[in-house]
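Bench log. Compound arrived from synthesis this morning; before running ITC I wanted a structural hypothesis for how biotin sits in the protein. Inputs:
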Amino acid sequence: MWAGRTLIHKECMDSTNEEAKRGADEGALHGTVYLADRQTAGKGRRGRSWLSDSVENLYFTILLRPSLAPEKVTMLTLVMAYAVSKAIEKVTKLQTGIKWPNDIVINNKKVCGILSEMKLEKQSPAYCVIGVGINIGQTSFSEELQDKATSLRAEGASVTREMLLQEILNAFEGAYEAFLRAETLSPILDAYNAHLVNKNRNVRVLEPSGEYEGIALGVTATGELLVEKSDKTVQKVYAGEVSVRGLYGYV
Ligand code: BTN
């Protein structure tokens, strides 16, 4: 097993993604995992911060050195979402959903966020880091988050960080190898789409060029979300943020 063969665990890191990038710049191996009990500058997507002061949650990053074109590396985030969803279901027996591209939700609330970053050298990826934050034991959330966030314990499951991390790395390793052979998401696509909470629901797509609404049809083998607009044309959404009606307080 290469995922997590080297595990760097500290009580505190600024951000496991930052620690992984520093390690990568100094030559750390493919598969090295950075694990922190808490983070002082946890990062979320789109420049947001990720509150990381509860030692009962899981904060880790895996360093990867894939030989893939940069546009294919972005699919690794979806591979990790699939692995986290599979691992949570295995160790907790709870039913999870995936909100494209990479939030894991339970009972309509977010339990896990994933942040991937890539470093390019001469147009090819030198490395990629995938950071995962999972609420495991936290049971109280700020007023702003309480309708949107949950934890495994709040949903009735009791698991240890170690058990869950091990299961995620197992699931990720297999999915990553299948993905590398296919260079598309086809090996995990049916399972990913079966968990997709956006599917057949109204979504609002927020793109730099503007906002529109439509019905999400599913995710393609290259990771885009297909959205049918009211004029029946189907758009492929590459990046951007999608809100799903009924989730995270969007009604
Ligand atoms: C999101 O906004 O949903 C992504 C959140 C990602 C948080 C994790 S916690 C471990 C890793 N280190 C970070 O600084 N961020 C990610």
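What the model suggests: The two ends are 44 Å apart (CA to CA). The CA atoms of residues 15 and 42 lie 5 Å apart.
ITC booked for Thursday regardless.
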